[in-house]
Structures are given as C-alpha cells and as structure tokens.
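Notebook entry, structure prediction.
Reason for the run: the old model in the group folder had no record of what sequence produced it. Starting over properly, with the input documented here first.
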Amino acid sequence: MNGNAQKPLALTMGDPAGIGPEIVAKALAHDAVLRDRVVVVGDPMALHDALNRYAPTFNVVDVDLRKPLSDWHEQQIALHAVRSLSALPKLGEVSAEAGAAANAAIVEAATLCLEGHTCGMATAPVSKLALRAAGVSEPGHTEILARMAGLAGTERFAMMFASQHLQVVLATIHLPLADALKTLTPELVLQKLQLTHAAGRWLGKPTPRIAVAGINPHAGESGMLGSDETRVLVPAIAAARAQGMNVTDPLPPDTVFMRARTGEFDVVLAMYHDQGLIPVKLLGLDSAVNVTIGLPFLRSSVDHGTAFDIAGRGIASEANLLHVLRWHLAAVD
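New structure, fully documented this time:
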C-alpha cells in the first residue's frame, strides 16, 4: 500500500469450496491498483492455497484493518485474517465448515465497515446450502448484512443490480415465488420505491425515472390477467408520486426492461428475484454489480454463484469481480 489517505476496501472470498478464492487471487494478481487498495478478509489457508494454484508469483502480507497499515510490495496481497478452517474443504462440495468460514469472513468484514475502518466491502459468492449447514439462519449476504446493520425485520434495504445497460432493484429477494407474491403489499412496494429513488439519486439522477414492473403478464391487462397491480402497485405508486417521485404506472414485465435498456427509464423496480435478474444477467454478467442499498456502508458483489461444478479447475473468470472492485472504488473516491 502506498500510504494514501483513502480507506481500504474489504474483500471476502466467499465459500472456500467454490470459485471465490480462485477469482480473488486472479483478480488481485491482475491489477496492481487494486492490490494497493483491497484487503482480503478471510481464512489464510484458503488464500494461500488459491495463490499457490492461480498466482504463484504472489504471496500474502498479514495486516490488521483496525490498525494503521504499512506499505506492502508489488508482489504481495494483503490479508486481514479470520482463522476458521481446520483444513481446506473439498472443492466443489457443500460443507458446514466452508459455510462457517464464509460467514465468519462476512461478519468480520461487515463489522470493520460498521466501525469505519474501510470504504465498504465487496464479496465473492457464497453457498446458501453451506450457510444453512453451518447454522446460519439467513439465506445470503443481503440478509446477514441487514441484520448486522439493525435492519432485520424491516423493508429498509434491497438488492440493486447496476450494469452498463440496466439498473434494477428487487422488491422481494430470496423467497419462493409463492411467498414473494404474498409478501408484496402497497406498504412494502412504497418502501422499495423510496430506496430506489434514493439509489437513483446516488447514481447521479436528481429525479430518477423509475419504471415499475407489473406482477402479472401484461401488468394484469386491466384486470383480465390479475388484480394484483390495482390492489398492490397502484396505491404504492400514488403515494410515491405524492412524495415527489417520478414513477410509472405498472408496466408489462416482458417489455419494461427493454425500454429501460434503451434509456427510457433510469431504474426498474422488479417484483421478484428472477423477474429482475434474468434480464440483468442476459445483458452482461461480467458488467453487473450487485449492491445492497439501505445499508450504512457500501456493499458490492459479483453477480454469479459459487460454480461448484468448475471449482478447482482453474477456468473460472475473474472478469466480473474485477469490474465490481473497480466500480466500488470509483464510487467511493
């Protein structure tokens, strides 16, 4: 580190049995600017193994993000150690040990953020099954971080996916579709519209144009294909407009993302996970950033999973993680 006054970015490695350690090693080996600012948070065993496999000319320098940081040299990658593994997990397999290691790193990185030692945190992918096996009640990063920030049980946080072509916020996240539809209420949608408006302003739009994706095909087709739009979305939209937000009527989900991609809207509020994520990933997985909005710190993440099927084969691409890290540092500088 070159002694700059900018705070470092904490980067967790995700599930150590997945591709997380591999893409972390490759990304940091690829970019000297990132090595100067990014500190890996996680188990030393996983990072040493990843460097031996995928970036053997680099080694680890141990740091403590709660203390002043010294310089490190060109071929070193900084690590704030969270020792939790007794042995390396078997690559490509779900295990409680790997889930516990991933969770320990998330908790430590978030704690460092809340204490003000970092400019936020970026995360490699975790396995929801491994987290569950480790006894973690939340299904993923978003819910863990919301609990740590005191937002559990509220709707004052959301997942946003930012990419070159499309910005999407999810009204509901990791829920079975039937449960997500039951969860949607005018009050919830209004809170997500408020978060979406704030996120759009943060992205540089003074009055962001927010498109609301309908719940049913054709946004209900005037009640012919469902009344959810009238019951849930219309009251929330009216309340949002009364607060000065620029919000559309419910729009057909099969065309709203195309219209946003061509610049008609600044951001789309999608009603459930796959409704929003399919177009984001189709338009460019490598250039999408998963951002948790509503937290008191910036959290960014890759937009892909643990890829257990290719873990350890050396073929995982670090392109999305490179984009995330560069995006995050540009956003906070």
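Summary: Residues 158-293 form a domain with the Isopropylmalate Dehydrogenase fold (CATH 3.40.718.10).
The old model has been moved to the deprecated folder.
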